[in-house]
Design a protein that fits this description.
The complex is a heterodimer of chains A (316) and B (334). Chain A has 316 residues and is an alpha/beta fold. Helices cover 46% and strands 19% of the residues of chain A. In chain A, helix 5 packs parallel to helix 6. The radius of gyration of chain A is 23 Å and the shape is elongated. About 3% of the residues of chain A have low confidence. Chain B has 16 helices and four strands. In chain B, helix 5 runs antiparallel to helix 6. The chains are: A alpha/beta (316), B mainly alpha (334). At the A-B interface, helix 2, strand 7, helix 7 and helix 8 of A face helix 3 and helix 15 of B.
Amino acid sequence: MRKAILGLTAVAMAALMGVASAQDKKVTIGVSIPAADHGWTAGVVYHAERVAKLLMAEHPGLNVIVKTSPDAASQANAVQDLATQGIDALVILPSDPDPLVNAIKEVKGKGKFVALVDRAPSTNDDSVRDIYIAGNNPALGEVAGKYIKENTPDAQVVVIRGLPIPIDQQRQDGFDKGIEGSNVKILDRQFGNWNRDDAFKVMQDYLTKYPKIDVVWCQDDDMAVGVLQAIEQAKRTDIQYVVAGAGSKDMVKKVMDGDKLIPVDVLYPPAMIGTAMQLTASNFYDQVPVSGTYILDATLVTKENAESFYFPDSPF
Amino acid sequence: MADTAAASPKVRRSWKDVDLRAVAPFVALALLLILGAFANPNFISIDNLLNVITRSAFIAIIAVGATFVISAGGLDLSVGSMVAFVASLTIMFMNSGALADPMMTLVAAMVLALAIGAACGLANGLITTVGRIEPFIATLGTMGIYRGLTTWLSQGGAITLRSPDVQSLYRPVYFGEIFGVPFPIIAIFITGALAAFVLYRTRYGRHVLAVGSNEDVARYSGIPVNRVRTITYVIQGLCVAVACLLYIPRLGSTSATTGLMWELQAITAVVVGGTALRGGVGRIWGTICGAFILEIVGNIMLLSNFVSEYLIGAIQGAIIIIAMLVQRSLVRKS
């Protein structure tokens, strides 16, 4: 009997303390992301570290550990290391989701909160994660297509694709949907491998091949660098504008400055890692339901809203 | 009558003197030009050809260096990463603002690029010769090192030339022309001429080929094998640096993916140009021709309308093999 009363008081006290010191609740969030090997992942690393600082300043009891890994195998090890450090939640942007699914499931199996970002394994359900946050690849193409359709309904467009992988195809399909029902004509589609130098070559050849090009859709800010250089070299004035995407600081800056060739940019933000971290923290501190799937819009960055997407200190 | 009889064997002999192996890459190039003209009439326009040859400059110049390394029996897989590394350090130097005057900055940066390139090459050379590590493994290692350092320097993002003064001063090095010939094309031929002189007309050049054809015989003949080999890697490093000097003004920036797979393109150019991978033979002009062939194949694919974008890689591979077969058949006839 005494034991039971003691137990009850302990429970009550714990509950009271829980309410009283919700702000100081000790929570550890582990963040596992790929190492910065190109512009976009460099942005992911930057934003993960930025948001980690913000969150820790906001919640004194919160500890956020950010770990980067160069490949799937070392990321699996990093996840295990985080788990042994006693994390309460894992936020992960897997470099390659399928090989990492078991490592993630193990963390989830121990009753930890798991937030999965951007890349989904083949089975993406609540056995793997609590929340899933991703950008919208079809919309990235569709937003670009719609912009071209509205502004230049009779445009002759050349398209520079990324690599022959599914997300590239989704973007192409989205683009086709975006320009549907207009006179926008696609002259050509070739792969630029999301690489500046390759995009420069492809654009040079397009300029040789087609005497009149109205719009270039190159889908990616890195490739836009090469495209702009090729147009400048050829001194061609028929190209009205270039639509890129992702939201790198250089291109967003051009949009902000009102560059004629880069009037807009389509967002596929590396800052989505921050969204996932914020939601994860909310799960512990704010008593709001967060479980579910979040697809971020492929927002059109224009001169009016560019400032809120401009991070001058980011490497990307 | 007697004259013609006397002349004809002479003519025949002079035809035999022409080394078909050396001519073969140029025949392949000519065939490609004809094919290209059929694919798209714009192909044969001066503007397009100048574009294509200009942008082949990086691979051509790197491949000239690779000709030295390969004909001495070595191999350098690190050149693509080295381009990224040397170019990144050079841009960072120009951004540092160490010298106030833009012209001085540019000249100092160019000297620095050459010094870094030579140092990177020297490192490769010493690891293979003094360290006695197979060149494949040694340069695979440095390939990772140079790439990794570049990624670290850029924090995964891009390193961009910031000063607009230096940029406008530097831009003509890629985009400028002398008498209508783009500067990078002139750079290719100057590099080629220098390299051909060193390889064919100097004692060092003969040592390179001797070391490549038989290392032991070369050693017994008193050739300092290790020194000769090490210097080939330094030459390769210098060529990489020259390629960087042309590369930087094009986009004014580098990223972690700069120069990715360029080592394979350079080696392909060398082999398509008629240099044997096992060493002992070096063909500078063939190598440059090989680099043109690689770039032109890509250009024809893009300009033609009948190839699906998914098949470009396969057709490029097939054309390279066919070009090699044409070469072989010419050689067999001789």
